[in-house]
Predict the 3D structure of the following.
Amino acid sequence: MGFPRPRKSIDPDKRGDFDAAISAAVAFLARRDFASGELRDRLGEKGFDPDVAAATVAQLIEERALDDGRFADNYVAYHTERGQGPIRIAADLRLRGLPPGLIEVALAAGPDWRVRARTARARRFGPEVPESWPEKSRQARFLQYRGFSSDHIRAALGPDFILDD
C-alpha cells in the first residue's frame, strides 16, 4: 500500500494568473471529466484565487470543454454498469455540486431501473429468485445499499415482497 502523494500547490505569484488556472484545469480535465463545481473546488485546493477559479470554469463552460449535462449523463451510464441504482447515483451527483434538475434529467434518460435492479441481483446472487424470507431480506438490503428504491427491489424479488421505506 502506497502513500498518497501530496498535492503540489502553485507558486503564490501565480495565484491570480488566469492562464495558469486554465492550464491546471485542462490538465485536470485531461485525466477525467469533472463537474463544474468539482473543478472549481480542485482549482481552489491547488491554490488559485476563488475568483480566478470561477472565471476559469466559466471560460471552459463557454468553450464547451466543461459540460455538467455531459458529466451527469456519463456518470449515470458508468455507475449504472457498475450495478448502482438511481438513489445512490443521485446522492453522488448532489455531492459533486450538480443542480437537482440536471440530475433528474440524467436519471430519466438512464436505463430501466427495474431491469437494472434485476440484473444487479442476478449478478450477485444467481438467476433464481429466493423463496425464503430471510434470503429475500438479505437480497433486498443489498439492492437498497446499491441505491435502488422499494419499487425496483419489488420488481427484482417478486411482487409478494413488501419493503418498508
Q: What stands out?
A: The first helix runs from residue 18 to 31. Residues 7 and 84 are 30 Å apart (CA to CA).
